Amino acid sequence: MITELTELTKGLDGGYQSLTDDELKDHWAVLIYFRETGHTDQELKTWTIDNMRNGMITTVNDKSGAPVPGLPGMSNRDIIKRYLTES
Fold first, then answer.
1. Which 3 state secondary structure label does DSSP give 87?
2. Residue 74, class by beta-carbon neighbours within 10 Å (0-12 exposed, 13-18 middle, 19+ buried)?
3. What's the farthest any 2 CA atoms get from each other in the chain?
4. What is the sign, positive or negative, of the torsion defined by CA atoms of 64, 9, 39, 81?
């Protein structure tokens, strides 16, 4: 997972090696979300995980029609779940 995250994103300050298994899964969920919503690997390589997370928050807010309180404090997986319920 670390190898693919490193190869398919612009990276993470401090590197992925310092993350726990749950944090890695959380970041992996973000990558899969963007791959499944039509973004190419070439696009993803130009984004950091933080860029992707901010994009997810914006998308959920846009889909709901109003800012969703608490999104910035949610885990990436919970934001994705919220996105799927808004769809």
1. coil
2. middle
3. 37
4. negative
Q: Map 1-69 to HEC letters.
A: CHHHHHHHCCCCCCCHHHCCHHHHHHHHHHHHHHHHCCCCHHHHCCCCHHHHHHHHHHHHHHHHCCCCC
Residue 37 structure tokens: 């919503």
Length of the chain, please? 87
Contact indicator for 48, 9 with CB cutoff of 8 Å: yes
Contact 43, 31 (CB under 8 A): no
pLDDT tens string for the chain (87 positions)?
Answer: 888 888 888 877 778 888 899 989 988 988 888 898 899 999 999 998 888 889 888 888 888 877 778 888 988 888 888 888 866
Tell me which DSSP letter residue 71 carries.
G
